[in-house]
Write a structure and sequence with these properties.
Helix content: 55-70%
Number of strands: 13
Distance between the termini: 70 Å
Strand content: 5-15%
Radius of gyration: 51 Å
Number of helices: 26
Length: 732
């Protein structure tokens, strides 16, 4: 048995740790039960408790078994303490008081002072334990008896008995044949024994000798029913029901009358008891196991009642935080996507070939007509401003969303106005209306004027739109106005080259600064949550340790171990959006050969490439409309995420309201306009709208007034239908 008790040490430690963490009140039933079971596990003796209502003859039965009047006996409820009877070489009593005082004396007379109820039938408050030592061979086998106060008398006594039953390996429940199994006894049988895993129970019936023969037979039948209805876990072959006439048995033992002792039923009971104990002692752990399992289950339930609400609270916090972070991550990625797209558009626009193709002709004509400043301000700067604003817009979106670092505006300055030197005029100057040879910065039209000025403008268009072959160039002698036109073309190319180089450099630097803006910081969680997380981890560790010790002791549990609680970040961390593979350009990225070409003023190489005609601005390409639509989508998504962030949760849908027939018709027409059925999904609505925008966007019909007006009206109808369909989707 000692070996078994040693095996439960870790389990006892886990139970006590759990109790300490639960901060159980000292007088709480769970704490008292825990102490009782732990004491029982540490007890190397096999304990037999005599249990029953007051005045049922418990002390009398024990005295009869011990062979003398060792314990207090009276006609009124007398036992006022749990008296443990152990083996000793002589009869003596040891009393330990609550203050630690120990009283040790021979005999048992002192029990009258400390172990019986006072005149008010109250137990003494200052007694911690009562032990009687007796030289009995049965006790010498490692057995001890526990004489308990009677139940159904006082609540204080009931609590003491209930507690002590858990520390017993075998319970002898004494019944009174004259009032067999009262309601209180049945409740105690269920609540104090069965529900707490105490199943090694023997019923002993007293006072049956006081009944008439017919009554004895009736009682005997009822006793058999009681015994069979209680599933006692005793060794096979042994009954759980015995008859002992306690007082006649005690008198027979005191007189040494063996025959009378046998007729009282005492001898048969003692033999059965000794055999049962001999078998159970060998597997004492199996006896104590059910009580331990029942108590562990209670403690596990108490732990779960602490763990689960705290875990739910922390999970709710984590879910909200993760939802916010997820929204911010999505916003950062979307903003970065829009920023990268806008930067790519501006970079493409700044590329020298693109600038030359789009602006060289008009700029050269403006220069020749003395109208360069108006062209630069009205056309070129306006286009640049729109592209710059498209880039900066995303950084202000990021600042508005994350409040990290305020962005700077993107400012790409315009180069100084182009300057040219006119070639010497030919001898034949009949067609020249104005003298002079120098034009600096403010155009040459005012110098040439008349037919020569018109000829220069015409030559600009001609030279930029023809494919000049080297062999042809050698054969053709250029006129004076063509030479001047080439000077205008070269001057504009130099202007755009300087602008492209400087713009790409500034844009690359601006991209580097944007990294510090399109980001957000995830700060440390509140200390209150961190403390709760630590408490939760402590609770869960205790629970899991207890569960592990129960498994080691082969004690079944209905619970599963808890997974480790996510630990908080020890420091704040930054989130940067997913970077797309974008080639950033700067001055050092431009090939040396290209830079040389940009700065070389060799007119023979500058007019060889074909250029677009001088005409009105072309209509936007479909891909440009696609880019505008994507920007609109990103703006819409980011605006929705801002709403979610500020509300702290996903936007809840308004409850469905009954629709009138007019509203139903309006919704049906909207879906028809988009070419959809009313059952269409949100994704289908969005895709249909996207298709119609790409088909009817007014920017596609610039220069076509009649179709443009039709497109504008079509888009108005489509937008209205799209809004109605979206509202209907939200109300589903």
């Amino acid at each position: 048995m000692q070996q078994k008790s040693e095996g439960y040490k870790n389990l006892v430690y886990s139970l006590k740790s759990a109790s300490g963490l639960l901060d159980l009140k000292q007088k709480s039933q769970l704490n008292r039960d825990l102490i009782a079971i732990c004491n029982n596990l540490a007890n190397s003796n096999f304990r037999i408790a005599v249990f029953g209502p007051f005045n049922h003859g418990k002390s009398t039965l024990l005295n009869a078994m011990l062979g003398n009047r060792t314990l207090p006996i009276d006609l009124i409820p007398t036992t006022g303490a749990a008296i443990t009877v152990r083996y000793g070489s002589d009869v003596r009593t040891r009393i330990i008081l609550v203050d630690g005082t120990e009283i040790d004396c021979s005999g048992t007379e002192i029990l009258q002072q400390f172990a019986i109820l006072d005149e008010n039938r109250q137990m003494r408050k200052d007694v911690a334990s009562v032990e009687v030592f007796c030289p009995h061979p049965f006790l010498e086998m490692g057995v001890e008896f526990l004489d308990l106060p009677g139940t159904n008398d006082r609540e204080e006594q009931n609590n003491l008995v209930r507690e002590q039953l858990l520390s017993s390996d075998l319970v002898v429940q004494l019944l009174d044949a004259r009032k067999l199994m009262t309601l209180g006894e049945r409740e105690n049988l269920r609540d104090w024994l069965l529900d707490r895993g105490i199943k090694t129970v023997i019923f002993v019936v007293n006072f049956i000798n006081l009944l008439e023969p017919d009554e004895q037979k009736q009682v005997q039948n009822r006793l058999i029913f009681v015994a069979e209805s209680f599933r006692a876990e005793l060794p096979a072959g042994f009954s759980n029901l015995y008859r002992v006439d306690a007082l006649p048995a005690l008198r027979a033992r005191l007189k040494g009358d063996v025959a009378a002792a046998n007729s009282s039923g005492l001898a048969a009971f003692e033999v059965a008891l000794q055999n049962i104990v001999g078998i159970l002692q060998q597997n004492c752990g199996d006896v104590r196991l059910p009580r331990l399992q029942a108590l562990a289950s209670q403690i596990q339930l108490s732990l779960k009642n602490k763990i689960d609400p705290l875990a739910n609270e922390i999970k709710t916090f984590d879910d909200k935080q993760n939802a916010k972070i997820e929204v911010k991550q999505k916003a950062a990625n979307l903003i970065n996507q829009g920023f990268v797209t806008s930067v790519r558009e501006l970079r493409d626009w700044l590329a020298l070939p693109k600038l030359l193709a789009k602006y060289q002709a008009d700029a050269a004509v403006a220069l020749a007509e003395n109208n360069f400043k108006a062209w630069q301000t009205g056309t070129f700067k306006n286009d640049l401003t729109q592209l710059q604003l498209a880039v900066v817009k995303w950084l202000y979106q990021a600042y508005d969303f994350f409040q990290e670092q305020r962005p700077e505006d993107l400012l790409i300055p315009l180069p100084s106005e182009p300057q040219i030197t006119l070639p010497p005029k030919p001898n034949n100057t009949d067609t020249l209306s104005e003298p002079g040879s120098i034009a600096v910065g403010s155009g040459i039209g005012w110098l040439l004027g008349g037919p020569v000025g018109a000829a220069v403008v015409g030559s600009i268009s001609y030279l930029l739109n023809k494919n000049v072959q080297k062999q042809d160039e050698q054969l053709v002698k250029e006129s004076y106005h063509q030479e001047v036109a080439k000077l205008c073309i070269v001057a504009i190319e130099d202007y755009l080259s300087r602008f492209s180089h400087q713009g790409l450099t500034i844009l690359a630097e601006y991209e580097q600064k944007a990294v510090k803006i399109i980001r957000f910081t995830v700060g440390l969680e509140p200390q209150e949550i961190t403390n709760k997380r630590e408490d939760l981890q402590s609770w869960q560790n205790t629970f899991n340790q207890l569960l592990q010790e129960l498994e080691t002791a082969n004690i079944f549990s209905n619970y599963q171990s808890y997974q480790e609680t996510p630990k908080p970040q020890n420091s704040s961390r930054e989130y940067f959006p997913q970077q797309e593979t974008v080639q950033t350009s700067s001055a050092k990225d431009i090939p040396n050969q290209q830079r040389q070409e940009n700065t070389t003023k060799n007119t023979s190489t500058r007019v060889e490439s074909p250029r677009q005609q001088v005409s009105s601005p072309p209509s936007p390409r479909p891909e440009e409309v696609e880019a505008k639509f994507r920007n609109w989508e990103l703006d819409e998504e980011i605006a929705q995420m801002k709403v979610e962030m500020r509300s702290g949760s996903q936007t809840s849908k308004a409850p469905n309201q009954p629709k009138t027939e007019v509203e139903k018709d309006k919704i049906a027409r909207a879906y028809t306009t988009l070419g959809l059925q009313p059952s269409a999904s949100f994704a289908e609505v969005k895709q249909a709208y996207r298709t119609l925008v790409k088909q009817w966007h007014p920017d596609l019909f610039v220069g076509k007034p009649q179709i443009l007006q039709q497109a504008q009206e079509k888009m108005r109808i489509v937008n209205e239908a799209y809004t109605i369909c979206l509202q209907n989707q939200e109300l589903r």
